[in-house]
Amino acid sequence: MAVERTLSIIKPDAVAKNVIGQILARFEGAGLRVVAARMMQLSEAQAQAFYAVHKARPFFGDLVRFMISGPVMIQVLEGEGAIARNRELMGATDPKKADKGTIRADFADSIDANAVHGSDGEDTARNEISFFFSSLDVNGR
Ligand code: CMP
Hints:
alpha+beta, 4-stranded antiparallel sheet, binds adenosine-3',5'-cyclic-monophosphate, single chain, 20% strand
């Protein structure tokens, strides 16, 4: 399996619950490495631009409001099959449907406050990583 990089965001609900470390430990425990990281409070314009693909969806306004409600922790994860592995670790978007033992089943409260975001494919991963990080920020091995 190819070594990939994917973008992961620990959302405001999980940051407020003080579980950044527990979530990062799950990534590391599954063989993913944090190769870039930054903590920041997104502006409304940044959140709208990051989620532009969802602009026409009825939940867009709530999604943006939620994502700017507090600081987020953003990281690039690297490892074999990192994109799919991260999605397995996160569980389904709606925590009510997420498998037992996944991050969203264990830490999320609702489909909006769902603890984490992860890129859903190779193109998305490339675009989402470059949205937040320059190549100089990403420390490969
Ligand atoms: P995320 O993986 O960050 O991508 C878009 C987010 O929109 C998603 O997680 C959810 O938090 C949020 N969202 C709210 N309602 C829906 C919905 N019906 N379908 C998909 N995503 C939704």
